Amino acid sequence: MDENSVVLKYLKEKGYNVDTKYYQNVSIWKEWYDGTVSEFHKYHDQNNIERELYKLGMAKKGCEDWSSILFTERDNIIADSKDNQEYLDKMLENLGFYDKIPDNIENAFWSSTVATVARVKDAIIDKKKKVLLANESTKMELIDVPAKQIVPLKVEHGKIVDLAIVSTIKEDNKEIYYIETHELINNEYIIRNVYLDSNGTEVEREGILKEYNTHSNIPLFSLLSPKIVNNKKYNNGLGLSIYANAIDQLKSCDIAYNNYVTDGVLGGKKVFYNRKLIKYVLVKRKDENGEEYTEEIPIYPDDLTKQQFQVLSDEAETINDKALIQEHNPDLRMDDNEKNINLALNLYSFKIGLGKGYYKFENGTVVTATQYLGENRDLVSNAKKHRKALNSYVVGVARSILLLGRLLFGENVNEKDAINLTDKDGFLVSDEELQEQYRQDFNAGLMSKLTYLMKARGMSEEAAREEMERIKSESTSIKDLVGE
User: Fold this and answer.
1) Which DSSP category does 409 fall into?
2) Cα 216 from chain centroid?
3) How high does pLDDT run on average in the chain?
4) Is the pLDDT of residue 271 over 80?
5) Do 79 and 182 touch, CB atoms closer than 8 A?
6) Mean pLDDT (whole number) for 262-288
7) Number of neighbours of residue 1 by Cβ within 10 angstroms
8) Is residue 132 within 8 Å of 408, Cβ to Cβ?
9) Residue 304: what pLDDT?
10) 396/220 Cα distance (integer angstroms)
11) pLDDT (tens digit, 9 = 90+) per residue, 167-186?
């Protein structure tokens, strides 16, 4: 949240003293995520011309890769209850939540925290009873909120219990501040909505219920943060960016890459001439004000009109003398530069929990390690911690959907049912572990021969059925041979 006196004053009147210093960190992490940090990447050369470092953009790349590791198309949100599962499947598809998850992981990992809030749109409002009633137009929505709009109000044992969500709305060239608070009071969440003008005066909004009691301790918000301890000053309960402690390594990556590129740019052949070989001519020009001036223009010996014949003064040394003409062919140092970049990448990937060797710079670009992720112990250990945080976030969103389904839409569901995020092949399981699991399931009678061939051997259903027919045919032939 930005320094906003209107919002801060309102929250203070409600008994909350909000410190906004932590959001300065979020702003810095955002610059790295966007790719350009003015104080680092921009500089002035000796002619005072502004220039910019060449960049690898590894801050965003790291977040993208963590998102790809933690969530794939193999994942499903599974509830124990059949009614809950059927309702969740329908709502998760309607709300597009599976498509939101990868983006929310990436955004949480750069910014520290993302919140997903379940809201209701076009409901019937009974202001006297402070309740919402659904009709055929009523819809549920999932709103994703970035860290800068999340204001923790109460934190217990490192967990945000109460929060405010702050946003700015432009209306008639005026700013309206919307504050939505979720507070757990007497084990029931109370949601309040307030709109303030630039003077801090409350603005009445038609069709908005100011206060709503869910009569449940299940929040209608769910938070996602990287599973790492926050060691920054002014920590207000939000999480920590995955590269918050790897800023120096990000700088190292960009410095190494900038050196790689500039070596290529500046590595062209250079030829140095003695002034005795250069002819100068005077050319008349006009400046921006139309004033005429004379400029001395050099004509070098390699000009097409001068290449064959060149007249030297009587005092000139012989043409073979290097004092007249000398070549310089700079060493591009490509191998050394690549080694430098790979060292920087190794340190960066280690600092953000991906382990050494996850990235490799070759042929002018960064590639991801091709070996199976399960072989990288550091990555697997960290990924499983982050996966638990992702599971809690996903379960929280699912519970909020079930809660509103029961309260507003009369669905026969229970928000306290057991729910989990599952991977059908197991999360970060090696090929050997998968094969062993398939064998165990088959031997225990939990997997058919057809499924075993499809999973363990990677066959299509048609190929697996053909293989089973061949096995059956060969078995019959052997029996005939031995006379059984």
Assistant:
1) T
2) 33
3) 86
4) no
5) no
6) 69
7) 21
8) yes
9) 47
10) 8
11) 998 888 889 999 999 999 99
- pTM, 2 dp: 0.78
CA distance readout (Å), 38 to 259, 344, 426: 19, 21, 43
Q: What are the φ and ψ backbone dihedral angles of 228, each rounded to 5 degrees? A: -140, 150
CA distances from 134 to 141, 300, 435 (A): 14, 84, 50
Q: Do residues 324 and 317 touch, judged by C-beta distance below 8 A?
A: yes
Q: Are 208 and 225 in contact (CB under 8 A)?
A: no
Residue type, 245: N
Task: Identify the three-state secondary structure at position 327.
Answer: strand
Q: Which of 41-45, 158-162, 307-311, 432-436 has the highest mean pLDDT?
A: 158-162
Distance between CA atoms of residues 175 and 164, nearest Å: 18
Q: Tens digits of per-residue pLDDT, 42-84? A: 988 777 788 899 999 999 999 999 999 999 988 999 999 999 9
**pLDDT digits 0-9 by tens, 330-344:** 565 678 889 999 999
Angle value at C-alpha 89, between 87 and 91, nearest 5 degrees: 65
Which residue, 265, 268, 264, is CA-closest to 336?
264
- Dist CA 438 CA 245 (whole Å): 41
d(CA 475, CA 171): 79
- List the domain boundaries for the chain: 5-248+374-423, 270-328, 431-482
Closest CA to 423 of 37, 153, 69: 69
Contact 187, 173 (CB under 8 A): no
Task: Please answer whether residues 351 and 344 qualify as being in contact, where contact means their C-beta atoms are separated by less than 8 angstroms.
Answer: no
Compute the chain's Rg from CA coordinates: 33
